[in-house]
Amino acid sequence: xxxxxxxxxxxxxxxxxxxxxxxxxxxxxxxxxxxxxxxxxxxxxxxxxxxxxxxxxxxxxxxxxxxxxxxxxxxxxxxxxxxxxxxxxxxxxxxxxxxxxxxxxxxxxxxxxxxxxxxxxxxxxxxxxxxxxxxxxxxxxxxxxxxxxxxxxxxxxxxxxxxxxxxxxxxxxxxxxxxxxxxxxxxxxxxxxxxxxxxxxxxxxxxxxxxxxxxxxxxxxxxxxxxxxxxxxxxxxxxxxxxxxxxxxxxxxxxxxxxxxxxxxxxxxxxxxxxxxxxxxxxxxxxxxxxxxxxxxxxxxxxxxxxxxxxxxxxxxxxxxxxxxxxxxxxxxxxxxxxxxxxxxxxxxxxxxxxxxxxxxxxxxxxxxxxxxxxxxxxxxxxxxxxxxxxxxxxxxxxxx
Length: 401
What we know:
single chain, 16 strands, NADP_OxRdtase_dom, nine-stranded parallel sheet, alpha/beta, 15 helices
């Protein structure tokens, strides 16, 4: 095996990734990521952060909180993630107004800071703008999220899915109650309110998101569930982050390349798949599509039984080869492609397991094996944003595919 080097920092320069490395003798220097990819005999630890187009670092390992309720158990889980499982600095926590758990996450953060487990500067907090708060409501919505989170700013705030003429589904109905700021603020979806057009238009909402960034309420703003076409339609400030579903069964290669060329970091939600999304979102999801396309394929039989990426035979094979768990293999796949990943767990041991993914990267062969999984399909297809009288009449309209 060649000399070991540690990656201290990564930066995206257009479509090129540059890495600052330190050799065993203490020598440091910048180089191209492609240099290391061409030299598999050189073992390179996976970087723990990426640099956003704002100049700030985002941890590649995050803690997702979708479907975690706003109760005492969730508060304890977030404390576990801060204290034990997510030792990277800063620690990355992802929430949203729609998740109805900002308040308990804020309590967990406040208690962790008071106990000396972490400082505010060691946290990277993302929350998201919900569909009913677009346009002129953006600043007030951000301040309300900050109040619930008990923060002075967020690290990232993303804009989310476009509008539809169908009512907001009951499963997404906000149940939030509850001025300090999130670091990151995202538009959750390109989705607004009932009607044939997007009202208010996404351009208006993005201008308001830019104001939130300029006011310092969010240290970065971005988007979620947007296509590159929708990203390119936004004027002015380039989004710092695009958050989308991404895993070996939805590799999003063209989107990754397009975001790199635009200086936009990609965050992968559902990096382990989302086997329970069919029941939660009331659709057949990926399992139904796989069943239709591969009903006669024996090698996919185990996957077909539950639609679970974690139980895919090829994922298990890579995990055995890499000496890690299937979940760790899937998370390594995401971060080694330069994405931040948002696994979710309510179990302390699994939270700690998910954090242990950086010191032993997957081999090029294992990465290639996961990169061959088929069919490419979504677990979360956003059917709820499609309506015959809305701006998105088909999923192809929504995703611009």
